[in-house]
Amino acid sequence: MRTEAIELVRRYYAAFNAGDMQRFLALLTDDVIHDINQGGREIGKPAFETFMQRMNRHYREQLVDLTILANDEGTRAAAEFTVLGTYLSTDQGLPEARGQTYRLPAGAFFDIRDGRVARISNFYNLQDWLRQVGA
Q1: Helix or strand or coil: residue 134?
Q2: Hey, what domains does the chain have and what are their CATH numbers?
Q3: What's the rounded Cα separation, in Å, for the pair 14 and 1?
Q4: From the CB of residue 23, how many other CB atoms can be counted at a distance below 10 Å?
Q5: Cα–Cα–Cα angle for 52, 110, 71, nearest 5°?
Q6: Beta-ladder partners of 127
Q7: 135 band by pLDDT with thresholds 50, 70 and 90
Q8: pLDDT tens digit sequence for 35-93
Q9: Using CA atoms, how far apart are residues 59 and 20, in angstroms rounded to an integer?
Q10: Which one-letter DSSP state was computed for residue 89?
């Protein structure tokens, strides 16, 4: 079960890096919980899809140096990675975008149910990102 959980998270990030939102969203449960870094909690695949549409409009990101861990039961996983990004257009409430690039250590925690991601909680240092984009 641990191996299946690790492979699910690996496929999740491979779809993200490929920009394949259809494949990416297919890996989620319909009632997925999304804990946004330093933000709120959204529930459901439609909310997650809307979030990703906004993210893809404002940011171009690739995740590298990926390390994935999972429990023996395959119900929980964690990932650590580096975000290589470009700030494409100004996101509401954030500094003006001018094509700034950034490199940001980040992590995520997952709940897994029936072979799909049931919760994703993302974490990164927002102050570090703000410094890198020149806020």
Answers
A1: coil
A2: 2-132 (3.10.450.50)
A3: 20
A4: 14
A5: 160
A6: none
A7: low
A8: 998 888 999 999 999 999 999 999 999 999 999 999 999 999 999 999 999 999 999 98
A9: 15
A10: S
Q: What is the pTM of this model?
A: 0.93
Separation of alpha carbons 125 and 35, rounded Å: 15
Query: Does the CA dihedral 133-84-99-96 come out positive or negative?
Result: negative
- Reading the block at residue 93, the tokens are 């409430």
Sequence letter at residue 3: T
- Using alpha carbons, select from 65, 69, 68 the residue that is nearest to residue 83: 65
- Where on the phi/psi map is residue 11: left (φ > 0), alpha (ψ -120 to 50), or beta? alpha
3-state SS string for 59-80: EEEEEEEEEEEECCCCCEEEEE
Instruction: Say how many CA atoms lie within 13 Å of 33 toward its Cβ.
Output: 12
Phi–psi pair at 76, nearest 5 degrees: -140, 145
Burial of 64 (0-12, 13-18, 19+ CB in 10 A): exposed
